[in-house]
Amino acid sequence: MPDNVDMDKPQFYEDLASELAPLLSGERHWMANAANTAALLFLRLQRTNWVGFYFLDGDELILGPFQGEPACTRIAIDRGVCGAAVRQQRTLVVPDVHRFAGHIACDAASNSEVVVPIRHQDRLLGVLDIDSPDLHRFDAADGTGLERIVAVYCNATDFDMSALPGGPC
């Protein structure tokens, strides 16, 4: 599949959602589905160096399934782009993470980032976080497209996260 930068982004993300849905079909576990979602995104999204999930546990985000370099294990919700997305409960597209106050540099190679909140039944569960070594890699169309991907993940998943200490469900 061509780089989403080289084609119509809404169509790219619609195609990606159509590829993700059957991949998750038949599996309802939140961790298994997060792992396969992260793997597919890492495979299909060009110019990314990290794709993964963080799940809420009290006032922290805890690292979930991901693809890329080792990452920050815990992020306080008052820090970083992920924490800001939780506090603001909206998708954040950051063209240059070095200009984002409070950015956490888990990977020094990351220069731009997009973070999408994960909501299920009006409950904020965590975030999908994607980093790129390129400045200005992501835009609003990526944010909207990734919101669609998160919706596919949520629709395919049961969120009994009791396996996480203090988990939200």
Q: Segments where pLDDT lies below 50 for 5+ residues? A: 164-169
Helix segment tally? 4
Shape descriptor reads globular
Main CATH class: Alpha Beta
| Total count of domains | 1
Give the strand order, joined by hyphens, for the main sheet: 3-2-1-6-5-4
- Proportion of residues in β-strands: 15-25%
Order of helices and strands: HHEEEHEEEH
Mean pLDDT: 91
Termini Cα gap: 36 Å
Q: Any chance you could write out the topology, listing elements then pairs?
A:
Blueprint: H1 9-24, H2 30-44, E1 50-57, E2 60-68, E3 74-76, H3 80-88, E4 92-94, E5 112-120, E6 123-132, H4 140-155
Antiparallel strand pairs: 1-2, 1-6, 2-3, 4-5, 5-6
What does this protein look like?
With 169 residues, this protein is of the alpha+beta class. The chain has one domain: Beta-Lactamase (2-Layer Sandwich). 33% of the residues lie in helices and 25% in strands. It has four helices and six strands; from the N terminus they run H-H-E-E-E-H-E-E-E-H. A six-stranded antiparallel β-sheet has the order 3-2-1-6-5-4, sandwiched between helices. The C terminus is likely disordered.
Q: Which descriptors would you attach to this protein?
A:
169 residues; alpha+beta; Beta-Lactamase; 6-stranded antiparallel sheet; 4 helices; globular; disordered C terminus
